[in-house]
Amino acid sequence: MANQVPLPRAGGAVIAALLLCISPALAQPVTPPAHYANVQLADPAKEASARALMETLRCLVCQGQSIADSDADMAADMRALVRERIERGEKPASIRDWLIARYGDYVTYDPPLSGLTWPLWLAPILLLGIGGWIGRSSFRRRTR
Predict the structure, then answer these.
(1) What are 61-81's pLDDT values in tens digits?
(2) Residue-wise DSSP of the chain
(3) With 0-12 CB in 10 A as exposed, 13-18 as middle and 19+ as buried, what is 1?
(4) CB atoms < 10 A from the CB of 46, how many?
(5) Angle, vertex CA 72, rays to CA 38 and CA 17, nearest 5
């Protein structure tokens, strides 16, 4: 019994594991949202134009909401960006084109027809055709 080896202490490993689990909470941004993220423009016509554009842009975090409805930080930044550019006098179409060039076609709810999006546009037509064919064959079997 005189040659016993002391057991290693697991305290350091437990503390490291706990710190690793806590680290995502510490990674939250502490910067305030951009000025125009939640503040409307002074000119009602410009605000209406910005709001109409924001309704057509998809939140890249939420993916099911427009940037006008989303509470995500990225949506707030995109709202601020849209309002700042509208305030400077840019046209909504050019802002939309810039956002599509930066984030891709997914940022808009109605992506243009292209080589990458043609399955998205043709899938509903194809599914309707398949559904009609299945329905037709089902009704034919019942009448016989």
Answers:
(1) 887 889 988 888 888 889 999
(2) -TTPPPPPP-HHHHHHHHHHHHHHHHTS--SPPPGGGS---SSHHHHHHHHHHHHTBB-TTTSSSBTTT--SHHHHHHHHHHHHHHHTT--HHHHHHHHHHHH-GGGBSSPPP-TTTHHHHHHHHHHHHHHHHHHHHHHHHHH-
(3) exposed
(4) 16
(5) 135
User: Taking every pair of C-alpha atoms in the chain, what is the biggest distance, in angstroms?
Assistant: 93
CA neighbours closer than 13 Å in the CB half-sphere of residue 68: 15
Q: What is the pLDDT of residues 81-126, one digit of tens each?
A: 999 999 999 999 999 999 999 988 888 887 777 777 788 778 899 9
Contact call for residues 125 and 119 (beta carbons, < 8 A)? no
Read off φ and ψ for residue 57, nearest 5 degrees. Answer: -105, 135
